[in-house]
Amino acid sequence: xxxxxxxxxxxxxxxxxxxxxxxxxxxxxxxxxxxxxxxxxxxxxxxxxxxxxxxxxxxxxxxxxxxxxxxxxxxxxxxxxxxxxxxxxxxxxxxxxxxxxxxxxxxxxxxxxxxxxxxxxxxxxxxxxxxxxxxxxxxxxxxxxxxxxxxxxxxxxxxxxxxxxxxxxxxxxxxxxxxxxxxxxxxxxxxxxxxxxxxxxxxxxxxxxxxxxxxxxxxxxxxxxxxxxxxxxxxxxxxxxxxxxxxxxxxxxxxxxxxxxxxxxxxxxxxxxxxxxxxxxxxxxxxxxxxxxxxxxxxxxxxxxxxxxxxxxxxxxxxxxxxxxxxxxxxxxxxxxxxxxxxxxxxxxxxxxxxxxxxxxxxxxxxxxxxxxxxxxxxxxxxxxxxxxxxxxxxxxxxxxxxxxxxxxxxxxxxxxxxxxxxxxxxxxxxxxxxxxxxxxxxxxxxxxxxxxx
Length: 454
Prior knowledge:
The chain contains 13 helices and six strands. By secondary structure, the protein is mostly helical. Strand 3 and strand 4 form a beta hairpin. The protein is globular, with a radius of gyration of 32 Å.
């Protein structure tokens, strides 16, 4: 049988199954100096159906593996967020319970953003002052967020880095020095100023390096949790009593607007980050995993991607070769430089693969992200509950926040987009706080006084 007739038989046989793809032969018989070896004439439909069946089994098994990975990733997501949130709230609760400095507001010093705090005011005046203070605080948060988004939109990255580095500098050096001094005083730890200065210097420098440059993922996460706890303690110390509770309610509503509204500042920040394929600054986000990704470009000669060299064998990349070898292992196709050049001219040069680089040694996998503001306000709520000295109220708020976070993760898995993490948790926390403090607490005290055990 001639070459043309055998080739036509093979083509008509394989075209009955649209899922089967045939490796392209040379364009003409004269385009190759070497002979073209046609496949076996005994290939029948049963062999093709068996090949298709094996391919379907392979696809179904890969889908099952992906489902298992999704379930595992969902469990890891919950654990990866519960652990840091729990640690941050535990640090704040332990500090509030043991260090009286952060609950003592007798000196009358408050934040500049809460100017209304009249001592001995009536109930109506306290309500008006609380509303004014909370409105001013939310306004300041909104203005600062809008400024951050504008700086990011116009690529003023150096200004943002300077702003965040100045904030981290104050937290890691000034506020940490104040924190360690009060903790040493509360636990009666004797130390000299030289030792404390050396310790704070090393603590702050290591934190600046891990947050704003590069460091182990676990160390970076520890520092982000620490600065969130320090900021929460500052709010507990310098916010008036009722202003703090109203701010928690207002910031939950603001979070809904900022994240879900199309013109919300946080929504715009996330969209810009996704459009530019750039990570949001690590000083603003807690991430359970670290991944660095480079935009797809034409790699230089001899470059590597994920430890494998990126090569092209005369226009046919490794993916093309693996696919065709697995589908038609028995097809022996011999080519020449002329035939390969003609094939490249017809089908075009395949695009270069995506170049990805993962941070080595840091568990560079996909990870969930939670804003540091969420850590701060979670801890403020639990810290204010701990300031009452009632463990029932503290534990109730603790559990309420974790339940709300779990529900938020469920909604995140359903909608597959950025969602606000404050509204559900803070709402549950406020309900649990006031119900426990005003009803459950007095009820338990009355039962104890009456020697009634239930």
